[in-house]
Structure formats: structure tokens, C-alpha cells
Amino acid sequence: MPTITPFLWFDDQAEQAATSYVSLFPDSRVDSVARTPDGTALVVEFTLLGQPYRAMNGGPGHPHTDAVSFQVDVDTQEELDRIWDALLADGGRPLACGWLHDRWGLTWQVTPSMMGDLMTGGGDPEANARVFRAMQDMVKLDIPALQAAAAGG
């Protein structure tokens, strides 16, 4: 049976990125590192939350874009804050509405797991509009504020 594995191209820091990513999530690990004869990492196989990934040090010329991002759903504000802060560490850049670029230029969305329910407003278009307006004013998402917007606050 075929499988699909996301494959990420880095200039020269695939191993550092993989090591950083696996430190953030349970059921995550660096599985293997294929090296060039001089010992430089070439291809890094790693697992995040049980999902396999591969990363390659392919050199410059192929930067990451916002057209592909990784969405991390979290249950609590504490978890959101921890992951958000870790992904921004050492040169990441916040964007808007829960999106950020990590220090390697990969785009992430750190969102509440209940975001879909909050955005639908339980079928209430007014609640949906309030949550959407609240989210548009945020860089890092604030779960209590989104919940308050959904409830009418």
C-alpha cells in the first residue's frame, strides 16, 4: 500500500529543525539521519505525533512558503503558549490569526482544537461573526477571548 510522507527541504539545518520539532510533541522522535561522507546530515527521518516526515539539507534556492503550513491543534491556552513560544524561539516571526514562521521559515498555525466549533457558532451567524472579528484582531490566538466572543462577550 502506498504511503505519503511530507518531505521538507532545508538549506543546511534539517537535523537541527527536526530535533527542535520532536522536542515539542509527544510520540515524536528523530528516527534516522543519513549523512554524507564528511558527516554532514543529508536526509533526516523523524516522527511528529506519530506522523513520519523527511527533511533534507538541499542547499539554498528553495525557501518554504505560506502555501504549505503545519496546523497544530491544542486543547488549552497553556499548551498553545508553550508551542507558540517554542516555534518563535531563536528567530521565528509571528504573523496573524495564529500563524507564524519558525526560525527556518516553515509556516505553522497554532490553533485551539475547538476552533471549528467556535467558528460555526453552533449555527448562530452572530456568534460566528463575533469569533471571526475577535480572531482577526489577534496574532497569537487567545482561547478564553475566543470563547467569550462566541458566548456573546
Automatic annotation (TrEMBL):
Q: Which domain of life is it from?
A: Bacteria
Check the record and name the Gene3D superfamilies matching this protein: 2,3-Dihydroxybiphenyl 1,2-Dioxygenase, domain 1 (3.10.180.10)
Q: Which SUPFAM superfamilies match?
A: Glyoxalase/Bleomycin resistance protein/Dihydroxybiphenyl dioxygenase
Instruction: Please name the Pfam families in this protein's record.
Output: 3-dmu-9_3-mt
Q: Which residues form the PhnB-like domain?
A: 3-111
Q: What is this protein called?
A: 3-demethylubiquinone-9 3-methyltransferase
Species annotation = Curtobacterium oceanosedimentum
